[in-house]
Amino acid sequence: MTEKTKPIAKDLSVTTYVKLVRTAEALHSEVSRGLMVEGLTASQFSALKVLRLHGPLAQRDIANYLLKTGGNITVVVDNLEKQGLVTRIRDTEDRRFVFVRLTEAGEELFDRLYQPHLERIRETMEAVSEANLTVLLELLEQLHPTTEVPMCQPAPDYLGE
């Protein structure tokens, strides 16, 4: 059997990738349960976080911060608006631009949920030593350097614009 034809089960790259994705999804689901109790998805909570840290933003900027598509962010913002957590404001100089800002209810909800959310993350990760977390972080940065950008920092502009 040649290197190119070995079974997938014996392909360390594929096995590791699948384990990484399944682990990330399981951890994300576990941490996000606390948000679901409050009627929020992880994407909605992340959008609230970006707006709380940066103030009103255009939807495309929210999408860039969260590494999501514009269409996905439109749905997220629509649902947050229905819940009274954000409002849309049309730019007075260029009416093509619509900014999203937190309402007072959105700020209050985020502020109430943020520390417990961080604590759930810490609890989820406590099974791993600090030394191993450092190694894991270094490995993940090698695997995909664009993820070095913190969630609430602008994503790299892949189009060079």
Describe this structure in a few short sentences:
The protein has 161 residues and is mostly helical. It is built from six helices and three strands. It has a single domain (8-145), classed as Winged helix-like DNA-binding domain superfamily/Winged helix DNA-binding domain (Arc Repressor Mutant, subunit A), CATH 1.10.10.10.
Task: Annotate the secondary structure layout.
Layout: H1 12-36, H2 42-54, E1 57-58, H3 59-66, H4 70-82, E2 86-90, E3 98-102, H5 104-125, H6 130-143
Antiparallel strand pairs: 1-3, 2-3
Helix pairs in contact: 1-5, 2-5, 3-4
Description:
The structure is a single chain. The protein has 161 residues and is mostly helical. The chain has a single domain, classed as Arc Repressor Mutant, subunit A. 59% of the residues lie in helices and 7% in strands. It contains 6 helices and 3 strands; from the N terminus they run H-H-E-H-H-E-E-H-H. Strand 2 and strand 3 form a beta hairpin. Helix 1 (12-36) packs across helix 5 and helix 2 crosses helix 5.
Quick tags:
59% helix; mainly alpha; single chain; 3 strands; Arc Repressor Mutant, subunit A; three-stranded antiparallel β-sheet; globular; 161 residues; disordered C terminus
Order of helices and strands: HHEHHEEHH
CATH superfamily: Winged helix-like DNA-binding domain superfamily/Winged helix DNA-binding domain
CATH class: Mainly Alpha
Number of H/I helices: 6
> Mean pLDDT score, rounded?
85
**Radius of gyration in whole Å, from Cα?**
19 Å
Number of domains: 1
User: How much helix is in the residues?
Assistant: 55-70%
